[in-house]
Amino acid sequence: MHSLLKKALTWDIESSKKFKFPPHHRFLWWIATFFAHSGDSWYCLGFIGLVWLFGSPYWKNVAATMGISTFVMAFVVIVIKFSIRRKRPEGEWGEIYRNTDPHSFPSGHATRVFFLASMAWLIAPIWLAIVLTIWAPLVAVARVLTGVHYISDILAGAIIGWIIGQLVVYLIPLFTQVFPFLYYPQTILPLF
To answer: Nearest-CA neighbor of 173 among 186, 148, 191?
Structure first.
């Protein structure tokens, strides 16, 4: 068993190195870094906050649920990261990630974007679910292409994010009771 795990980890490290873009491919590097950053928590929460501030009552409820749930998901990811403590791949790009969060497993970005896509299928219009489902793998793959994650980090993040996104909708009644000031009372979110 130990030998099999060691082989899998070696494959993961070597394969991730092969997928990493060299920065001298300027246009491809720009695209990869754009998508890698687009899943940052402050961008996601900032966008959710804008939707909550300026959206209709329905969109306020969607944004409130996604925002609160993002914090729940982040807590789960932090617990896993600090339990496993897998070091990020060696590299120069992504200094902010390397300094603020030296652990790579699972990818918080992959978890976050797949989580949002998963939730969207249950509480948002189908067009948003489709957009987020297309965006999520682009962000996840970009994290490997820019060298801040291993392939297994993003795969685990995608699975964890999707599962938490499906489960957290059961907490919506609790969210509306604990944070009633974030919800518009006359608009009910669909659960399924």
So the answer is: 191
Q: Tokens at residue 21, please?
A: 């873009």
User: What's the number of CA atoms in the CB half-sphere (13 Å) around residue 142?
Assistant: 23
What DSSP character marks residue 93?
S
- pTM, 2 dp: 0.84
Mean pLDDT of 151-173: 92
At residue 187, the 3 state secondary structure works out as coil
Task: List the beta strands (DSSP E) in 24-164.
Answer: none
pLDDT attached to residue 192: 41
Sorted by where each begins, the domain ranges of the chain are: 40-180
Give the DSSP letter of residue 185: T
Element (H, E) at 52: helix 41-54
Name 103's bridge partners: 87
Point out which residues pair with 87 in neighbouring strands. 103
Tokens of 11: 């494959």
Tens-place pLDDT, residues 46-88: 999 999 989 888 899 999 999 999 998 889 998 998 898 888 7
Residue pair 106/156 in contact (Cβ under 8 Å)? The answer is yes
3-class SS of residue 106: coil
